[in-house]
C-alpha cells in the first residue's frame, strides 16, 4: 500500500498520542476537578461547543486548509485544553473547553475525509473496490487509536498510585450498586476519593501536554498533503460564506442522513454510559476507584483488537452482519446489567462487561465511519460533520442526565436509542438495496468511467 499506508499510520499514531492525553484527562475530570462540579461542567461545555462547530467549521476549514492542516490546527486546540488543566479554574478550564470543542468536529471530519480519499485513491491504484480499502483503513486507524484508552489510563494510574482511594466498601453500600444506583440513595462512597497533591497533578498534566505537542509535530512534519491542490483551487475560487455555512444542514435533505441520526447518536450514548455510569455505579461502587483504570484498559484493548478484525472481516461478511453483531452484544449487556448485582467476589465479570462493550463499540466506530464514507462520498465533509454533530448530541444528553436519573432508567434510555437506531438503519440498507449509491472512486475520471457500488447484503 506504500505511501498511503504510511499516511494512515501517521494519522493513527498522531491521534493515539493526542487522545492518550485527552482521554486520560476526560476520565479524571469528575474527581480531579470536582470542586463546584468544574470538571463535569467543562465536559458539558466541551461537547456543546463540538455541536456548534459541527454546524459550520468542518467544511470551511477543510476547504481552505485541506485535511492535513485542519488536523494540525485542531490538534492544537486539544493541547490548549491540557494547558487549562495545569491550573484549573472557571477562568481557564471553561475557555479551553470551548477551544477544544471548536476544534473537535473539524479534527474528526478531516480525519474521516483523509482516510476516505486515501482509500479511494488506493482502490483505484489496485483496481479494487474503494469501500473495501476504506474499511481496512478505518480498521487500522481504530486498532491503533483505541489503544489510547490503555495508555492514558495507565499513565494516570502509575502517577496517582500512591493517591489511590482504598476505602472499604460495606455490604450495605453494595445494595445500592449497579442498576439500583440512584442519585437520591447514592452511597457509593465517591466522597471519600482523595484529591492528589499538586505535584502529582503537575507531573501528569505536564506529561499529557508533552504527548499532545508530539502528536502535532508528528502530523505537521510527516503527513502528506493529499488534497492540497483541491484546497488551493477552493481558495482561488472561493464559495459564498453562507453556502459553506449551511453545507452541514443542507446535507440533512438526504433522507438517509436523517434515518442514520439515531444510530449515530447511540454511539455517544453508549460511550457516555460506559465512561460515566458503568465505571461509577458498577466498578467504583463495588470495587473502588482504583479499578476504573483497569476496566478502561480492558475496554481499550478489546476495542483495538476487534477494530482491525472487523475492518478485515467486513470484506467477507458485509457491514450488515457486523452491525447485527454489535446490536446483539450491546443488547445482551444491557439486559445483563439490569439483572446483575455487582459484588467484589465477581471480579472477572466486571472485565467481561468492559471487554464485550469494547467489542461492540469497535463495530459502531469502524462500520459507522465507513458507512458514512461510502454512502456520502460526494459530500464527505458535510456528512462527517453531521456524524460528529449527532454523536456529540448523544454525549451531551448522556452527560446531562447522568447526575439526575437512576441507572435503571439510563439503561432503558440506552436500550431505546439502540432499538430505534437499528430499525432506522435497516431502512437505510433497504433504500440502498433498491437504489445503490453511485460511488465516485476518482473524480477526475467520473465522466469516463463511473463506479457503481452496491451495498453488501
Can you walk me through this structure?
There is one protein chain. Helix content is 76%, strand content 0%. The longest helix is centred in the N-terminal third of the chain and has 47 residues, at 38-84. By secondary structure, it is mainly α. It has 16 helices and no strands.
Topology:
Elements lengths: L1 H31 L5 H47 L5 H37 L3 H16 L2 H12 L11 H4 L23 H25 L5 H9 L4 H5 L1 H4 L4 H32 L5 H26 L1 H21 L7 H29 L4 H22 L5 H28 L23
Helix pairs in contact: 1-2, 1-3, 1-4, 1-5, 1-7, 2-3, 2-7, 2-8, 2-15, 3-4, 3-15, 4-12, 4-14, 5-12, 11-14, 11-15, 11-16, 12-13, 12-14, 13-14, 13-16
Taking pLDDT < 50 over at least 5 consecutive residues as the criterion, the unreliable ranges are 187-194, 439-457
How many beta-strand runs?
0
The helix count comes to 16
Given helix and strand content, the structural type is mainly alpha
Sequence of secondary-structure elements: HHHHHHHHHHHHHHHH
Mean pLDDT: 81
Rg, alpha carbons: 22 Å
The portion of residues assigned to helices is over 70%
Cα(first) to Cα(last) distance is 28 Å
Main sheet specs: none
The dominant shape is globular
Short description:
By secondary structure, the protein is mainly α.
Question: Features of this protein?
Answer:
457 residues, globular, disordered C terminus
